[in-house]
C-alpha cells in the first residue's frame, strides 16, 4: 500500500445501534421520507469493507480511524443502557478493525454518566481491544426524560481525566444534535430547525463545551491530556484572540479557574482536524495560530464523501513537509498508530 492520507474522524454504527438513528432522520435530511433516509444512512454507516474501502483505494486514503456515530452513548440518559451501548459498539468495532488492521483503527465509545466506569471502559478498549483513544459526543444526556446535560469540565470528572493522562491517549470531542426538549415548537431551535446540525448548532454547542474544558483547570491538573476538536476546531481558533483578550483582564484573571488562557491550552492540549471543513484559508489560519503540529486531516465520512475530501486536499497549497505532517505524520504520532512514518 502506497502511503496516503490518514483520516481520523470517520463514523460507523454497529448493528445494535441502527434503531437509534431514526430519531435524527428528519434533522439530517429535512423534508425527505424518513424511511428512505434511514435506510440509505444506515447502509453508509454500516459499510466498512466494501464501498468505503473501495473509495479509499480509489482516492488515496491509506488509513481510517473509526468511531461510533453521534450521539452514541451520550444520547442515552439511562446509565446502564449507555454503558451497554458503548461496550457493544466497542466490541463490534474492534472485531471489524481486526479484519483489516493495516487500513483501519478505532477509538472507543464511552458512557460519561460515571467517570470511573468511563475510565475503565477506555482502559479496556485501549489495553484489551487495541483502540487508540476515545470519543465523546459533546454532553451526556441524563435524567429520567433525558432533559439534563452533564459536561466534563467539573471536578466529578477528574478521575476520568486522570486515567486519560495515565493511558496517554487522546479524547476526541464531537458534536451532537440538540435534545428533544430543545426542539419543541416554543423553543429558539424548535422554530428554527434549519439551524440545527453541522452548519450552525454543532459548532456553537460544542465550542461552549471546549471553552469550559479549557478554562476549568483540568489541563493544569492533568497537563499531558490531549483532546481533539474537529471541523477546524469548531471555529474557536478565529475567536482565540478576543477570548483571551477578555479572559486575561485583571478582573477576570484574578478569579479564573485556569492558570493560563485559551490559546495556551490550544497550543499544548488541543489538536484540530479538517473534518467536514474543507476550507484552505481556514486551515492556513489554524496553522498560523496553533502550529502545524496541532493540525490533522480528517474527512468526516460518511457525512462527507472520500472523493470530495481528497480532491480538496490535493488542491491545498502548503509546503510538502506541512502536508505530510497534517495528512499523515501528526496522526501517527498523536494516536501512536502502527504505521510507518
TrEMBL record:
UniProt keyword annotation of Lyase present: yes
Molecular function per GO: carboxy-lyase activity; hydrolase activity
Limits of the Amidohydrolase-related domain: 42-337
GO biological process, one term: secondary metabolic process
SUPFAM superfamilies according to UniProt: Metallo-dependent hydrolases
Keyword Lyase listed: yes
Keywords: Decarboxylase, Lyase
One GO cellular component term noted in the UniProt record for this chain: cytosol
Family indicated by similarity: Belongs to the metallo-dependent hydrolases superfamily.
Protein name: Related to 5-carboxyvanillate decarboxylase
Lineage: Eukaryota, Fungi, Dikarya, Ascomycota, Pezizomycotina
Amino acid at each position: 500500500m502506497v502511503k496516503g492520507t490518514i483520516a481520523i474522524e470517520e463514523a460507523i454504527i454497529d448493528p445494535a445501534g441502527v434503531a437509534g438513528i431514526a430519531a435524527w432522520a428528519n434533522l439530517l435530511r429535512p423534508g425527505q421520507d424518513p424511511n428512505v433516509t434511514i435506510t440509505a444512512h444506515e447502509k453508509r454507516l454500516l459499510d466498512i469493507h466494501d464501498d468505503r474501502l473501495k473509495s479509499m483505494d480509489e482516492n488515496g486514503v491509506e488509513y481510517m480511524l473509526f468511531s461510533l456515530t453521534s450521539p452514541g452513548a451520550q444520547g442515552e440518559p439511562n446509565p446502564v443502557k449507555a454503558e451497554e451501548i458503548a461496550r457493544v459498539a466497542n466490541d463490534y468495532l474492534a472485531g471489524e478493525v481486526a479484519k483489516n488492521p493495516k487500513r483501519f483503527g478505532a477509538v472507543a465509545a464511552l458512557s460519561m454518566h460515571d467517570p470511573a466506569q468511563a475510565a475503565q471502559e477506555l482502559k479496556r478498549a485501549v489495553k484489551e481491544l487495541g483502540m487508540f483513544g476515545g470519543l465523546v459526543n459533546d454532553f451526556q444526556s441524563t435524567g429520567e426524560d433525558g432533559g439534563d446535560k452533564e459536561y466534563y469540565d467539573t471536578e466529578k470528572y477528574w478521575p476520568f481525566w486522570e486515567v486519560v493522562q495515565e493511558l496517554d491517549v487522546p479524547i476526541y470531542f464531537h458534536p451532537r444534535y440538540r435534545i428533544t426538549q430543545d426542539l419543541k415548537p416554543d423553543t429558539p431551535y424548535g422554530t428554527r430547525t434549519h439551524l440545527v446540525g453541522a452548519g450552525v448548532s454543532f459548532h456553537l454547542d460544542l465550542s461552549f463545551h471546549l471553552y469550559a474544558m479549557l478554562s476549568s483547570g483540568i489541563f493544569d491538573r492533568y497537563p499531558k491530556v490531549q483532546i481533539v476538536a474537529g471541523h477546524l476546531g469548531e471555529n474557536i481558533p478565529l475567536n482565540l484572540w478576543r477570548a483571551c483578550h477578555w479572559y486575561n483582564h485583571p478582573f477576570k484573571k484574578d478569579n479564573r479557574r485556569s492558570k493560563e488562557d485559551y490559546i495556551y491550552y490550544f497550543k499544548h492540549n488541543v489538536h484540530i482536524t479538517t473534518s467536514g471543513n474543507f476550507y484552505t484559508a481556514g486551515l492556513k489560519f489554524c496553522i498560523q495560530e496553533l502550529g502545524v503540529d496541532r493540525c490533522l486531516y480528517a474527512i468526516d465520512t460518511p457525512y462527507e464523501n472520500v472523493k470530495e475530501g481528497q480532491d480538496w486536499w490535493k488542491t491545498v497549497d502548503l509546503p510538502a513537509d506541512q502536508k505530510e505532517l497534517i495528512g499523515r505524520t501528526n496522526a501517527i504520532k498523536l494516536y501512536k498508530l502502527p504505521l510507518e512514518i
